[in-house]
Structures are given as C-alpha cells and as structure tokens.
Amino acid sequence: MELEDFYINEERTLTSEEKEKLLNQNKRLVSDFQARKLEAEAQKHWDLFYKRNETRFFKDRHWTTREFKELLAVDNETPDIQNLLEVGCGVGNFVYPLIEELDVLHQANKFFYYVCDFSPRAVQFVRNHPLYDDKRILAFQCDITTEDIQQHIAPCSIDIITMIFVLSAITPEKFLLVIKNLHKLLKINGVVLFRDYGLYDMAQLRFKSGHKIIDNFYMRQDGTRSYYFEKNELAKLFLASGFEILSNTYIHRRTLNVKEGIDVPRIYVQSKFRKL
C-alpha cells in the first residue's frame, strides 16, 4: 500500500460518474425536522460513538509535526512555556504522540496543553491515559460553538490552536461563531493549525440519497455529521474573523495498491491562520 500526498490549489475535477453520484444525493434530502433533531442530539451521537469505539477508531496522529513545524520549533528568544489548545481532542490521538515526541527531543516543557471535546466520554478517555498529568494538561468538556470555553481559558492567552477534523462535525451555521471564539482565545500573532475534509473527498461522493442535509453537509449512519470544505470558503470565514492566511491548500492523497486494484482519492484542506 502506498500513500502519496499532493499539495494542490485547485479543486478536484470530477468524472461524469462522480457528478452523477452527487446529483443522486439530491433525490432525497434529510428533512428539516431530522436536521434539527441531529443538531439537538449532536453531543449524544458523539458520546455514543466513543462508547462503541472507545480508543480503537482513530489512529495516533504522528504526522502532525511533519505538517505543522510550529509544534516542534524552538523559540530561543521566548523560552517560556507556551499554551496550546487542541479543539476536538477525541481520545488523545494528537496530544499524546506530540508529548512523546517532544519528550524525546528534551522539550517536555515546551507547552501547557489545554484539550477539549464535545463528548464527556472522550474527555474521560484522555484523562485515563497513563501520560495524563494535570501539571501539564487540562482536559475538559465544552461546546466550542458557545462561550463555555472561556470558563477554562482566559482570553488572549493561547499561542497555538489545533483544529484537526473538528469543524466539519459542526453545523455550517455555527462556523463563524466557532472561529470568533478561537480568535478571542489567541494571543496577537497566535496561530490556528487546521486540517479537515476537502470538497469532493471520496467519503463525500460515497453518500447515498437520504444523507445530504445541505450542500456539502451530510449525516452519517451513526448520526454524526460531516462537512466538506472548499478552501476559499474556509479562507473567507477566517478573514472575516480577524485572521490572516499563512497557508491554505488542498492535500490530495491517493491510497494505491496496484495488486488489489485499489486507488482511493482522499482530499483534505490544510491551513494555517494567524491572529492579527
């Protein structure tokens, strides 16, 4: 199995068959009543997700320090501990590999970690991890679409925010609220490190009729939801919230297995935004 990443600014060009798949999704949309119910029960669905899967579903994210050099960069002029916030921590697949890597590099005191998730069960898994230490990590449950997070973190106190496959799980009506909340927490020149599902990702094309809520926003079988981002749309949201764009591109990943005839196109949006 081979993985190849291509960093591309243009959207993927669809085949006729793929265009037909997208059109077929419009034959039966999620009803307004069901869409409102999904929104009202969003936390319940994610909590059930972690009840079923516990810590087994997501792989540890060892790739983050390769893609986001800020996580390893040493600032000799500012040796103080920085504050890092992970929004949507899940069961710790980002924070614990990062801690282990920094410990190996003798940078154990680089960050104090704030990690939060919508699911109380996910947060408990983070707290149960053998590396959890309240001297270096604060894990808590919150709804990032509200101002709840300010009960745990002071405004203008965070150096780096990571948001990896999180915003896509939130209704698009609340995207701007979320980004403005991030802006309030960051110090001037603080950065958001972002990766999420990109427009025309394989997973988007696989949805059948009856799963589409609105354009690019879908209901999964388990009641969780997923949005697929167009990168210019994402840029406008952050620009409107007081950020500048450091980078913003599509990552086209192909999972290839010639022997088995597998060629799976994945598309992500990867970005860095800095608070002005």
From TrEMBL:
Which key words tag this protein in UniProt?
Cytoplasm, Methyltransferase, Nucleus, Transferase, tRNA processing
Q: GO terms for biological process?
A: tRNA methylation
Q: What's its catalytic activity?
A: cytidine(32) in tRNA(Ser) + S-adenosyl-L-methionine = N(3)-methylcytidine(32) in tRNA(Ser) + S-adenosyl-L-homocysteine + H(+)
Output the Gene Ontology terms for molecular function.
tRNA (cytidine-3-)-methyltransferase activity
EC numbers, comma separated:
2.1.1.-
The cross-references to InterPro entries, in alphabetical order and at most eight, read: METTL2/6/8-like, SAM-dependent_MTases_sf
Compartment(s) of residence: Cytoplasm; Nucleus
Q: Which family is this sequence assigned to?
A: Belongs to the methyltransferase superfamily. METL family.
This one is known as tRNA N(3)-methylcytidine methyltransferase
Organism in which the protein naturally occurs: Glossina palpalis gambiensis
